């Protein structure tokens, strides 16, 4: 995908976590031999998407565990990826299912969308993409593509693109960030025509992620593929997971009319359990106030309106929705509503803004320097929850695995 797309998603992550230097723990994993079929992959299979700035040979991606590859074949009506032929052929030779994507520049113009779809089909055919494969419309800002042409006209143009792909004997998909899908496209009309055709980009945090954590899955209808990182396993390549089974010449896109939604975290293959919550933290029913997505930055217990502890809690870095704005519990504490008569302390989610009284270093969970950055005196920094005791000294958490000594505030 484009640099523009990555910047947009990273900025969205920065807004959520509100701190610099956030990183994912890098894990050295042994290379494995993938046994995926080149014509189908199961749900929860991992894959990559590549363009001309990635390797022409995708062998290393297969060895890292990728079971499918989505290759950029074209853009507009005048550009073809010079590495696409090699990327598709090496994907197939390494037992990865090949797919393709086209970077859209048609904005909300349906006739231009048809022309671009025809161009994408010809490029895919020239590069050896098997008939019946998936071809995605990559719809985002960049290269003159205007995403602000209205949700309905934009959806109509995208559907025109997808209709043309289908007529040529391929399976159409729509790629976009969760923000674009929700705010710039009448996505419901797209999945009404093409159920489970969405390939959504949504990153929990910026930086390396080795495996998807479905606690951060962007809960929305119609998703077949989730792009969960732009640095999968340290290869500087986008990482994706199949939410549903995918098959060349198959009918899994329609899935007998079923609609894909957020998979149950209890069925997730992820090995990261630090983001899971207790089994009792679900709400009794959904409140009527507007919902806001956020992340718990420190373990958050659940309380009722009286301020009494209830069963369950949310683990640190767990994705939640809260309803309405902050509320004051009967004990005077500021909280966020996460269910009917269920609340968490606001400071564990929204944090508190504090000003540095002196220059300060940033530390990790073991009390060691996390990086060489220095927070300067007078800098406002958001801290989450109460203090931590690390090796006998007190710290505030300022991000995922990042701490500053409380004495510096």
From TrEMBL:
Transmembrane segments: none annotated. SMART domains: Glyco_25. Residues 346-406 form the S-layer protein C-terminal domain. Keywords: Glycosidase, Hydrolase. GO terms for molecular function: hydrolase activity, acting on glycosyl bonds. Residues 255-290 are annotated as: Disordered. Belongs to the glycosyl hydrolase 25 family. This is GH25 family lysozyme. It comes from Lactobacillus amylovorus subsp. animalium.
């Amino acid at each position: 995908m484009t640099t523009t797309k990555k910047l947009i998603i990273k900025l969205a992550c920065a807004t959520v976590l509100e701190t610099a230097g956030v990183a994912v723990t890098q894990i050295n994993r042994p290379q494995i031999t993938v046994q995926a079929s080149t014509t189908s992959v199961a749900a929860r299979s991992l894959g990559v998407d590549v363009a001309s700035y990635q390797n022409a040979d995708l062998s290393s991606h297969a060895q890292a565990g990728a079971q499918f590859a989505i290759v950029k074949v074209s853009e507009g009506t005048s550009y073809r990826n010079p590495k696409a032929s090699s990327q598709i052929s090496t994907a197939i030779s390494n037992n990865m299912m090949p797919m393709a994507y086209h970077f859209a520049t048609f904005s909300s113009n349906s006739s231009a969308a048809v022309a671009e779809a025809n161009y994408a089909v010809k490029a895919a055919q020239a590069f050896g993409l098997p008939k019946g494969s998936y071809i995605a419309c990559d719809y985002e800002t960049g290269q003159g593509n205007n995403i602000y042409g209205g949700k309905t006209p934009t959806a109509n143009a995208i559907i025109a693109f997808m209709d043309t792909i289908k007529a040529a004997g391929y399976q159409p998909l729509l790629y976009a960030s969760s923000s674009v899908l929700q705010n710039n496209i009448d996505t419901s009309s797209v999945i009404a025509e093409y159920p489970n055709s969405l390939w959504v980009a949504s990153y929990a945090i910026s930086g390396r992620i080795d495996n998807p954590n479905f606690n951060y899955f962007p809960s929305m209808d119609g998703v077949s593929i989730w792009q969960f990182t732009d640095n999968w396993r340290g290869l500087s390549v986008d990482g994706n997971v199949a939410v549903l089974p995918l098959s060349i010449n198959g009918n899994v896109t329609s899935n007998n009319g079923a609609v894909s939604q957020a998979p149950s975290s209890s069925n997730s293959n992820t090995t990261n359990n630090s983001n899971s919550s207790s089994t009792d933290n679900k709400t009794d029913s959904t409140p009527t106030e507007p919902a806001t997505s956020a992340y718990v930055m420190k373990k958050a217990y659940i309380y009722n309106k009286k301020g009494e502890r209830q069963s369950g809690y949310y683990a640190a870095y767990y994705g939640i929705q809260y309803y309405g704005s902050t509320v004051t519990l009967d004990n005077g504490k500021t909280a966020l509503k996460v269910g009917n008569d269920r609340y968490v302390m606001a400071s564990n989610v929204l944090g508190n803004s504090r000003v540095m009284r002196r220059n300060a270093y940033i530390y990790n969970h073991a009390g060691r320097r996390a990086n060489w950055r220095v927070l300067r005196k007078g800098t406002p920094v958001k801290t989450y929850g109460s203090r931590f005791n690390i090796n006998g000294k007190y710290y505030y958490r300022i991000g995922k695995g990042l701490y500053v000594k409380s004495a510096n505030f």
